[in-house]
Write a structure and sequence with these properties.
Helix content: 40-55%
Strand content: 15-25%
Distance between the termini: 19 Å
Oligomer: single chain
Largest sheet: 7 strands, antiparallel
Number of strands: 10
CATH topology of the largest domain: Yope Regulator, Chain: A
Number of helices: 10
CATH architecture of the largest domain: 2-Layer Sandwich
Length: about 325
């Protein structure tokens, strides 16, 4: 976070006693009996934006089990100059805060939006609850699959357990090496066909090399493979072999056309008929383009952290 965001966080900490979270651009806590998460951007880690803020509450109309009605919060939006939009769904209330170019104005808006919302909730009979509508129990500020939520302990344990179980099943499903290798081979066949097709059309090999890389990796993952070191070795071997085969086929076609011999005979004697330097230059360039397509894709896949893993209670 930059200095302006840290200053905004500090404003909320000083004004309402909130606590910063080490892993997200949020401050959180309890303001006059209401659990709240204040964050840069929208209501999830994937909507981070330093230019605006959101206040995330979970409340319930006292004496009713009905979901929140967006219409009931129109007066709050009209009365508060600091609030441009409000989303009410279930027991979840997300209040947007007006952005401002000047640092002091943005900080003033944060304080005003928080104050106005809390006063409105108090005046209109809303009580603190978890997102499943449970009241009279401790409500924690949490991150559930990358989304900021307010849950009681029982609901958090249930939801976090379900997410963990689903994730473990997904991990198990995505580590079937046998089917993944088949997927990589199928993908590499698509890449090999692209190499042959673009060669016959007279195009530069660059695009076909990229297709080989992307198709092989995609085939591996779609058929149950998880990208790790083992997967990289398998994918590399498949790409190298299939690229070699496709390149040899293109040479065999040229040889068969030139010498008027059967294709299989030309394929058998490619290395005898082609100048070694010319062959090495051609396949080396193709391998270069395959590598340029594969390396960044694999690095990105290795670094990627599924949102489902980001589930915890804020301290």
């Amino acid at each position: 976070m930059n200095k302006r965001e840290l200053a905004r966080q500090q404003t909320l900490i000083d004004a309402f006693g909130l606590t910063p979270d080490d892993s997200t651009p949020t401050v959180h806590g309890v303001v006059e009996g209401y659990s709240v998460i204040a964050t840069s951007g929208g209501d999830s880690m994937g909507t981070y934006d330093e230019n605006y803020w959101s206040l995330i509450f979970s409340v319930k109309k006292r004496g009713t089990n009905e979901a929140l009605d967006k219409e009931d919060f129109k007066p709050l939006r009209k009365e508060s100059k600091a609030i441009p939009a409000i989303v009410a769904q279930g027991n979840r209330l997300v209040v947007s805060v007006n952005g401002a170019i000047k640092k002091d104005a943005q900080q003033d808006n944060l304080v005003a939006a928080m104050t106005d919302t809390v006063r409105y909730l108090q005046a209109n009979g809303y009580e603190n609850s978890c997102e499943n509508g449970h009241t009279g129990t401790s409500v924690s500020n949490t991150v559930i699959a990358g989304v900021y939520r307010n849950y009681c302990d029982d609901c958090y344990a249930q939801v976090a357990g379900d997410i963990h179980e689903a994730h473990q099943s997904e991990v198990a499903r995505k580590d079937n090496v046998f089917t993944a290798v088949i997927g990589a081979i199928i993908g590499s066949l698509i890449g090999g066909a692209a190499i042959i097709l673009f060669y016959k059309l007279g195009f530069v090999a660059a695009i076909s090399g990229f297709i080989m890389a992307i198709a092989t990796i995609k085939g591996y993952t779609l058929m149950g493979g998880k990208i790790d070191i083992k997967a990289i070795v398998i994918i590399a071997v498949v790409m190298i072999l299939m690229t070699y085969l496709a390149n040899r086929i293109t040479w065999a076609w040229d040889i068969a056309d030139y010498f008027k011999v059967p294709f299989m005979e030309a394929f058998k004697y490619v290395h005898d008929a082609v100048e070694p330097s010319a062959y090495a230059k051609d396949i080396g360039l193709l391998y270069l383009f395959v590598g340029l397509g594969a390396v960044p894709t694999l690095i990105s896949a290795l670094k990627a952290t599924p949102a489902v893993e980001v589930t915890y209670k804020m301290d």
